[in-house]
Amino acid sequence: MTTVSLSAPAEGLVKARATVADPLKEQLLAESTRGKPFVKDPKICSRNVNVYYGDKQAIFDVSIDIGKNEVVAMIGPSGCGKSTFLRAINRMNDTIDGCRLDGEFLLEDQNIYDRKMDVVELRARIGMVFQKPNPFPKSIYDNVAYGAKIHGLTSRRVEMDEIVETSLRKAGLWEEVKDRLLQPGTGLSGGQQQRLCIARAIAISPEVILMDEPCSALDPLATARIEELIAELAENYTIVIVTHSMQQAARVSHRTAYFHLGRLIEVNDTTQVFTSPEHHLTEAYITGRFG
Amino acid sequence: METPSLLISLIALTVLAFYIGRQRSIAQAAPLGGVRHLQSLPLYYGVRASLWCGLPAFLLLALWLIFDEPLISTVVLSSMPEHLQPHSLAERNLLINQIENLASGALSTEGVDSAVAQAAENLLRLKHIAGMLLSVATLVLALVGFIWAWWRMSPRLRARYQVELVFKGALLLCACLAILTTLGIALSVLFESLRFFQTVPFTDFITGLNWSPQTAIRADQVGGSGSFGAVPLFVGTLLISFIAMCVAVPAGLMSAIYLAEYASSTVRSVAKPVLEILAGVPTVVYGFFAALTVAPFVRDVGTGLSLSVSSESALAAGLVMGVMIIPFVSSLADDVISAVPQAMRDGSLALGATHSETIKKVIFPAALPGIVGGVLLAVSRAIGETMIVVMAAGLAARLTLNPLDAVTTVTVQIVTLLVGDQEFDSPKTLSAFALGLMLFVVTLLLNMVALKVVKRYREQYE
Amino acid sequence: MNNRSRTTSGAAALIQKSLARRYRAERRFRWYGIAAVVFGLLCVATLFVDIIGKGHGAFRQTYLHLTIDYDRDVLGLSATAAASELALADYPALIKQALLQRFGEVSGRSARRELSGMVSSSAAYLLQDRLQANPSLLGTTETLWLLADDDVDTYIKSLRDRGGAFTGRVSEQQQLWLKALRDSKEVRLQFNWNFFTSGDSREPEQAGIGSATMGSVLTLLITLLLAFPIGVAAAVYLEEFAPKNAWTEFIEVNINNLAAVPSIIFGLLGLAILINFFHVPRSVPLIGGLVLAIMTLPTIIISSRAAIKSVPPSIREAAIGIGASPSQVVLHHVLPLAMPGMLTGAIIGMAQALGETAPLLMIGMVAFIVDIPGGFTDPATVLPVQIFLWADSPERAFVEKTSAAIMVLLAFLITMNTAAVMLRRKLERRW
């Protein structure tokens, strides 16, 4: 499975070519993903994934692996499909009417989009942190305990306290909130709220954490704090992070994937992407010619 | 001059004033080098002239028409001999009626006191004079206003500014009508209620357990004051409202949740408008449905279960009222639920919560204040609902909490007491206003609390 | 690492264990939702089926085929009767005579009364009209379809019922006569134009919604003429001119509260202030329209404000930018753009006013109105009040009439609301 050669299905190509006339897109179509999209023994594996919103196709034929305990950053200009791809991993796109997906999407060896796959279980295994911190209008404690409660991880108060404390500690928030656990989570600052959301996600011990531009609503100091946290979490979790900031991608990720107009252009070790990108579009993006 | 022809001449005058005013402004502008040297457009000079001409005259006319009748009758009465002077308001109204009927020829002068006949003539004469006076006064006022406007006109005059001032004033007046209405309601129920509470003490009214106003026709009757205890009405109202809420809140809330969160867009696009129909059906139709279909059905079912059910049971009225309020609750709940940000849902779903867990544990608590506000508004509607209970609930006040019994409500009693001829000096009629006061105060409080809660809830997510 | 993978798999096992229970809860919750929606839909269906089932019959009315002999003696006219005498003639006798001829001699006073009771009392007026219009009919014979009495009508219509016919006050003798008439096809159901054109009546077969409909139209006209301009003006003031101060806030609180005040309270207002203080006459479209205008004003203000709010500020800025005064901005730009929304609100407000009953009961609109009102100060009633009055009537035939009147009222309301929705769809602009 390591070196599957990537050749786009011909008919898909022809169909897509018939609908677009933009020369830039034409050029894109002729090429497949550059770099090293595949790894040995991946945690998540996608092959030829297409995502459609109604009639509009948002993701074209994306194939990529994400390894265990790896941090993969996804970058690209607005509307390039990186967030859509991220949300496809834990099937958050299911909540959008008219959204459908084809291709193969595996979590370890289970097909994520299999009929038998349980979305609830899937999302318990693949947690998510959103762009804007979205704590529930409940106390800090209840926010963190929420997942554990609904999944029935424990019914004993002591164990629950422990889960809450551990999660808050892992999210680096414990020291700041341990005296006001019963106050509403919405009362925290933006950066604290985002760490609360991370704590909430890790309270149910997921295997993968998806982060959708987790720092875009935060100030630089809070951002730095979250980035530190990502580095710590990377020891235990697989993390996929979508970011607008190339510096952030460079700082936190092991590998970086560059998306453009719904296509995965290049995946490579982060240092390589930022020092010697293989594709001219990647280069154009990281040198700031568009984005 | 008669009022309609006076009105028409006034309107003609204002239109004329508009044209003359506009022409004059154009004429004034001509030596300066054209209309663009005017401070405002000629249109505004015209409008200004017609406002000066028409506005004071119309105001005078309106005031006169409102106040001339009581004024004239006071003058007529005061000119009558001492022994015929009325002693009470009712007598006074009777006398005035008699005089007016004599004057209009509806009553023949035969066998009527000559002084009264004299008064009738007097009335006719005064009315005639008043009419003449009014015509002359309004027309003169209109002319004076127009001449003033004409005289003051100059190219530097800020005509547009003045016209817009009047325009804004008129708009403000329209907006203030809402306050006037509230004031009118408050005054109308308050004054008559105060008169009522002079004969029946407020404490008796609010704590009395016995309501039978029909028996207390005369004040000197035994037990005349004891029969205005409104507690059975309050209990009946609350009982029926409670039954209604038991139907409306679960059904309205769950259907809103289902349609907003689960239903496919096709189901939603069909079910929602169909449910909205329930909100558009007039209450009189629900009343008919309750009285002729639901009440017999409830009674038959009750009889089948060997229960004794009144044919005007509170249950039937409450059930139908609940059905009426379903769309009200569900549209409010829909608003409130869709105001909960999508991020909240995403956050919960991403943690692996099922849809219902997300709704029950995240969306519902977040939307709770809004839902409570909506339910309070629904309660206020149930309490104030009239036609269903008038047609399907009973008339006899009974102090009971049994939903199978017939009870009566505040609104039913207001209608029964006020439909038909009323005497405004009997406590029976006045008691309706006291009930109206209670109804107004309670619903006002409920509404204010509910609107405040809903507003604060909205702000939270804006 | 080891420790962590253990907790992960432990959590996964726990989650899997809880899944079945949680999905049961999920399904249950869904079912509650479906049950609630189905309950609501069933209520709509039951309501409509019930009303239509009860009321559809009223659009057809039973007529009896009789041969009328315009006989001078029966009419009680002298041989040299002048045209003016025709007004005083005994027309019911003509019908009695015709019935007796049809069924042979009927003995006994009560039997005769039963016989003539089968035809509506209005039939005599029809004969009078015909004869007065055409005096040459005198002495001739003609066959006519005459309106049957309401009891006969109810009986004839109920013959098709599965549960057996409803005899009510129809005697066995009358049933026999009617059977004879039916066998010879001398009974038929005709479309009931009368229902739409005539006024109220104590006799169900003669009662119609003509006067009530006219009353509703006149009343709504007053309501529209008052509530729409004033409502729009108030909305314009609040959205475009009002300063942010306590007074404005007070106005807004008032409007929002008035929108939720029970309608019956507006009836009390009309009674105490308009009738008792300003001496507006009772029972006329004028007072009804005034009260309904006051009642719908908050609705119209609120919807007009929403319409004005939806006009984007960029339009205002553009107009102000080229030197338009605030009132020019409103009159030239905001109002035309907001008008569709305002009209929609007005239609919905009018629909609400059309269905309103309770406040009108207070101000004397519960009157027995036979004549069709011709002006704003003629005594009148309105459709919903007519429904209320008929619903109270004991005659069984009125149940049918009431339901039919409800069908007409609902048809009006559905038309109005559909028009509002279409208007909104058609004219809605997306900014």
Explain this structure to me?
- The complex is a heterotrimer of chains A (291), B (462) and C (431).
- Helix content of chain A is 37%, strand content 24%.
- The longest helix of chain A has 14 residues, at 157-170.
- Chain A has helices at residues 10-19, 23-29, 82-89, 119-125, 140-150, 157-170, 174-177, 190-202, 220-233, 246-252, 270-275, 280-286, and strands at residues 34-35, 42-53, 56-67, 71-75, 99-107, 110-111, 126-129, 208-212, 238-242, 255-260, 263-269.
- With 291 residues, chain A is of the alpha/beta class.
- Chain B has 462 residues and is mostly helical.
- In chain B, 76% of the residues lie in helices and 0% in strands.
- Chain B has 15 helices and no strands.
- The radius of gyration of chain B is 31 Å and the shape is flat.
- Chain B starts with a helix and ends with a helix.
- The mean pLDDT of chain B is 86.
- Chain C has 431 residues and is mostly helical.
- Mean pLDDT of chain C is 86; it is low at 1-6.
- Chain C has helices at residues 2-55, 72-75, 91-103, 109-116, 122-133, 150-158, 172-183, 193-197, 210-241, 246-258, 263-275, 285-309, 313-321, 326-355, 358-362, 383-392, 396-427; strands spanning 60-69, 141-147, 187-191.
- Chain C starts with a helix and ends with a helix.
- In chain C, helix 9 crosses helix 16 (383-392), helix 11 (263-275) crosses helix 12 and helix 12 packs across helix 14.
- Chain C is extended and about 95 Å long.
- Chain C is 66% helix and 5% strand.
- The longest helix of chain C is centred in the first third of the chain and has 54 residues, at 2-55.
- Chains in contact: A-B, A-C, B-C.
- Chain A binds chain B through residues 90, 92, 95, 97, 119-125, 127-128, 130, 132, 134-138, 146-147, 150-151, 197, 200-201, 204, 210, and chain B through 265, 341, 343-354, 357, 361-362, 365-366.
What is the H-and-E element order of chain A?
HHEEEEHEEHEHHHHEHEHEEHH
DSSP strand content of chain C = 5-15%
Q: Got a strand count of chain A? A: 11
Average pLDDT level of chain C: 86
Shape of chain C: extended
How many strands appear in the DSSP assignment of chain C? 3
Give the end-to-end Cα distance of chain C, rounded to a whole number of Å: 55 Å
Query: In which order are the strands of the major sheet of chain A placed?
Result: 1-11-10-4-9-8-7
Query: Based on helices, strands and strand pairing, what is the structural class of chain A?
Result: alpha/beta
Low-confidence runs of at least 5 consecutive residues of chain C: 1-6
What is the helix content of chain A? 25-40%
Order of strands, widest sheet of chain C: 2-1-3
Main sheet overview of chain A: 7 strands, mixed
